[in-house]
């Protein structure tokens, strides 16, 4: 049995700049070669998006694994999550004395 996690309303999607963009741009098959250009194009759309912050918050909360969300690619989101987790760790766990 899996848990159901409420991640909030997603009304921000109505104002998404990517609504009129090619969805394939946002889900490149890799981060190399031609896919890299797709990812860059997707991020350019995100830079003009009025709901970028809400989109990124949603993706992080929902643990969206694939695609560009809120201007960040998969690997970038993983690094952001890891950095936030490290910052939330107690000082001793980070190698800092209290
Ligand atoms: S930030 Fe990017 S992926 Fe998110 S809604 Fe805006 S354009 Fe779409």
Q: What are its keywords?
A:
98 residues; mainly alpha; binds iron/sulfur cluster
Helix fraction, binned, reads: 40-55%
Order of helices and strands: HHH
* Count of individual beta strands: 0
Q: Major sheet, described briefly? A: none
Number of domains: 1
What hetero molecules are bound to the protein chains?
Answer: iron/sulfur cluster
- Report the principal-axis shape: globular
Average pLDDT across residues?
Answer: 89
The number of helical segments is 3
Gyration radius, in Å:
16 Å
Low-confidence stretches: none
Broad structural category: mainly alpha
Percent of residues in beta strands? Answer: under 5%
- Taking the alpha carbons of the first and last residues, their distance comes to 40 Å
Give the oligomeric state.
Answer: single chain
Would you give an account of this structure?
There is one protein chain. The protein is mainly α. It has one domain. 19% of the residues are buried. It is built from three helices and no strands. It has helices at 33-47, 52-62, 74-88. Bound molecules: iron/sulfur cluster. Iron/sulfur cluster (SF4) is lined by residues 16-18, 26, 45-46, 49, 51-52, 55, 68-71. The site of iron/sulfur cluster (SF4) has 14 residues, from helix 1 and helix 2.
């Amino acid at each position: 049995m899996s848990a159901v996690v409420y991640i909030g309303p997603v009304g921000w999607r109505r104002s998404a700049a990517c609504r009129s963009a090619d969805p394939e741009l946002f889900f490149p098959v890799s981060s190399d070669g031609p896919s890299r250009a797709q990812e860059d194009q997707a991020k350019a759309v995100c830079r003009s998006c009025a709901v970028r912050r809400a989109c990124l918050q949603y993706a992080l909360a929902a643990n969206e694994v694939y695609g560009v969300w809120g201007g960040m690619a998969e690997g970038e989101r993983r690094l952001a999550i890891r950095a936030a987790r490290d910052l939330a760790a107690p000082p001793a766990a980070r190698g800092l004395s209290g």
